[in-house]
Description:
The chain is of the alpha+beta class. It has helices at residues 3-11, 31-42, 57-61, 65-73, 126-129, and strands at residues 23-24, 28-29, 75-77, 87-90, 100-106, 109-112, 120-123, 132-137. The chain has a 6-stranded antiparallel β-sheet. A two-stranded antiparallel ribbon has the order 1-2. The mean pLDDT is 93.
Amino acid sequence: MTREAIVAAARGWIGTPYHHQASLRGVGCDCLGLLRGVWREVVGPEPEPPPAYSADWAEASGRETLLDAARAHLLPVAVEAAGAGDVLLFRWRDRLPAKHCGILTGPDLMVHAHDGAAVSEVAVAPWWSRRIAGAFRFPGVVE
């Protein structure tokens, strides 16, 4: 699997409406659903189904559920080494669990799904950079 294939798969989701807990390209997804859908396209079947989760799951539990799942299924990379096709996890606020993810499509661009908007490609502006909780690579990426 190449970085280009991951980027192409992620961009194929652009325009998909936001829908909490969904993961259907062109129909609906949230940020995790986007990541799951790209996984299915470039890696294969999902390793496990995600549990049901509420919109405030991170604040309610206080656990690093998303970060733990990323560590279990993706390969950690240094944030400064992350490149196209890699996954970034974000915290909305300091000391809160990571709750959002996006897929890098270039040095300063990512595709992500955000509540109230369709999947889009956006700049990884300073606002996003300050909130990065971790960077990860899909298994099997060929450099």
